[in-house]
Design a protein that fits this description.
Layout lengths: L8 H22 L2 H31 L6 E2 L6 E3 L2 E2 L3 H8 L3 E3 L9 E5 L4 E6 H4 L7 H5 L4 E5 L9 E5 L6
Parallel strand pairs: 4-5
Antiparallel strand pairs: 1-2, 2-3, 5-6, 6-7, 7-8
């Protein structure tokens, strides 16, 4: 009589357990879930900024406030050519972000921003920034995971919104 040889149930279970342990320890090396999530959040912020800017522009156009510098009546958002200004009372207020200005200590809000006082505002997740190296635009841009909002030059051109994600994987 010929005897069939195979694996026992115990041997199969041991192999499955070993493969499971290897998968749990090796998967994070192959998949960067946290970095992908940060990239998605920054891209979502860009969409929110675009939507907020268009909404404010529509409101400003209805109110006839497409001048170089003005404030909308409803909501009192600072606008430049009808689009939200690159300030806390502009785009941050238009998007209603839980944001605070970049400071040398850890932020207690979801977002931090730095307005350069000219035409740009830089916005990043406070968890990505942590304690900034500098309370300047470099405090945000140095991390490489942020959105830059630049004022428009005229009422016919929307503001520039740029996404930077090179540092989101860290």
């Amino acid at each position: 009589m010929k005897r069939n040889q195979g694996f026992t149930l115990i041997e199969l279970i041991i192999v499955i357990v070993i493969l499971g342990i290897l998968a749990v320890t090796a998967a994070p090396r192959f998949f960067n879930f946290a970095g992908d999530a940060r990239v998605s959040v920054v891209n979502g912020l860009k969409g929110a900024i675009q939507g907020g800017a268009q909404t404010v522009y529509a409101k400003a156009a209805i109110e006839g406030r497409l001048g170089a510098s003005d404030t909308t009546e409803a909501g009192a958002v600072d606008v430049i050519h009808g689009y939200p200004a690159a300030t806390a009372n502009g785009i941050i207020k238009a998007v209603t972000l839980d944001a605070s200005a970049l400071v040398a200590t850890a932020a207690t809000t979801d977002w931090v921003y730095f307005a350069d006082g000219a035409d740009d505002i830089y916005i990043a997740q406070s968890s990505v920034i942590g304690t900034p190296t500098a309370v300047t635009a470099v405090g945000i841009t140095g991390k490489g995971c942020y959105v830059q909002y630049t004022n428009t030059d005229d009422a016919n051109t929307p503001p520039a919104i740029a996404v930077f994600t090179s540092g989101c994987d860290d």
